[in-house]
Amino acid sequence: AAGRVTGVVSQQAIAEAVRAAHAAAGTTEDTGDGRADKAGVAP
């Protein structure tokens, strides 16, 4: 991220935005464990 991000809420908001962007691009699936796995492949 550009600059320093402080506060859990801000970090969660950024993480949600990233997951949403990836989901919209069809490149990831949110496994619900806080990680979006590429092509839906489990780590």
From TrEMBL:
Keywords: ATP-binding, Nucleotide-binding
GO molecular function annotation: ATP binding
Record protein name field: ABC transporter ATP-binding protein
Region (Disordered) location: 21-43
Highest rank taxon of the organism: Bacteria
Start-end of Basic and acidic residues biased regions: 32-43
